Amino acid sequence: xxxxxxxxxxxxxxxxxxxxxxxxxxxxxxxxxxxxxxxxxxxxxxxxxxxxxxxxxxxxxxxxxxxxxxxxxxxxxxxxxxxxxxxxxxxxxxxxxxxxxxxxxxxxxxxxxxxxxxxxxxxxxxxxxxxxxxxxxxxxxxxxxxxxxxxxxxxxxxxxxxxxxxxxxxxxxxxxxxxxxxxxxxxxxxxxxxxxxxxxxxxxxxxxxxxxxxxxxxxxxxxxxxxxxxxxxxxxxxxxxxxxxxxxxxxxxxxxxxxxxxxxxxxxxxxxxxxxxxxxxxxxxxxxxxxxxxxxxxxxxxxxxxxxxxxxxxxxxxxxxxxxxxxxxxxxxxxxxxxxxxxxxxxxxxxxxxxxxxxxxxxxxxxxxxxxxxxxxxxxxxxxxxxxxxxxxxxxxxxxxxxxxxxxxxxxxxxxxxxxxxxxxxxxxxxxxxxxxxxxxxxxxxxxxxxxxxxxxxxxxxxxxxxxxxxxxxxxxxxxxxxxxxxxxxxxxxxxxxxxxxxxxxxxxxxxxxxxx
Length: 517
Hints:
The chain is mainly α. The protein has helices at 2-6, 10-40, 63-85, 92-115, 128-132, 140-158, 179-198, 208-234, 241-253, 262-285, 294-312, 315-318, 324-356, 363-368, 370-375, 380-394, 408-458, 508-516; strands at 117-118, 121-125, 464-466, 469-471, 483-492, 495-503. The strands form three sheets. It has a two-stranded antiparallel ribbon. The chain has a two-stranded antiparallel sheet with strand order 3-4. A two-stranded antiparallel sheet has the order 5-6. β1 and β2 (121-125) form a beta hairpin. The longest helix is centred in the C-terminal third of the chain and has 51 residues, at 408-458. The radius of gyration is 39 Å and the shape is elongated. The N and C termini lie far apart (92 Å).
């Protein structure tokens, strides 16, 4: 909740937070009703469970409800990964549908293949993939890359956010409204990973401290690698690099934290941080808009972490009886099967749903922000923007906008109102100047009319001939041009034409001067 709402814009932060708390309610209800039975019920040839739906958790076998609660966290995590990938443009109702699909079908189905077991005998694997030797200790693929695949499908169907990619190919970086909150979310997740990985032993044994140490080392390796590598590539320390780098390291070590050395855990984290960084431009190349970096962290990190089991895992600890090459091959098989399961089911269902119920909000709703359009929830900043939008649309600047006291937005509103006051003063001065100009123009026009009458009365328009010279007088009243003009031209040898013009247009005074001339 903290991570994703911090990485999104203010106008959508409430929507993202609501999604993250709502999807856990949905995951709880759906996983209890259907998912837990598909994942851990009596196996049908290793493909899905057939009972344990709506289980009754009594006091006879307390380990079962404990196990259910633990697995519920994994289900909720897989579901919430999609939230960040599609943030800021997916309908709230559509996201609920996605969470139901993951919790009821996609996660439990692949979870049975990889983690299915007999609840009466914890050490007996029932899933077909696990029987082949596939190892994913705490969910690099089962949880993280599975959520990433579904997020990728959802992103491809609903498209990027408005303005993210221009027609010219320019990529606009959309910065989250509160990176400190996102950093806090990262630290909370980092701390939670102690239970995520350490608890996957399903026993508080001597293995737990080493698993936790490996988890911390990989997170640190991912953070450091992403920061240094990204700093070198970009030329500056981009703010989300340590954040997503640490998460990529955590995701990467999740599959093998029980079976690698500390040095290998550090290396796995380093590679995960670098791969996370390199995935970002690859997504942009295909105009796949991931609002919070969920795909680079969870999908890329999950794939790499699952493969790292085969590359680095201690074969004795893994206990599959496979050679190094065979273990790598079965890890690749698990990755491919997870992708096919998630891609096929999510694309088929979401494409069908999108045909009848569009998953994406309208352009106007996206512009206004999902906080308001989806939930009618506003913030001071949203209210400020709405009032400013009204002024822009109507041109009515007669009233100050509302000031929320003791907030940064309120300070912005106060200064905006000072600008409005200055604008109003300027408008009043302009209006007065316009009135003065109109008055003066009226006086000038009256003056010119009088001048025309004077000029017309004194200038004879009849032609005259004096001592062989033809004199032609014409009256052409001008209102804008004044001056004297002459022209001398030889018509034919011995005959010269002289043209004299006294052009006036400057009022009564000019007319009187004409009379004197």
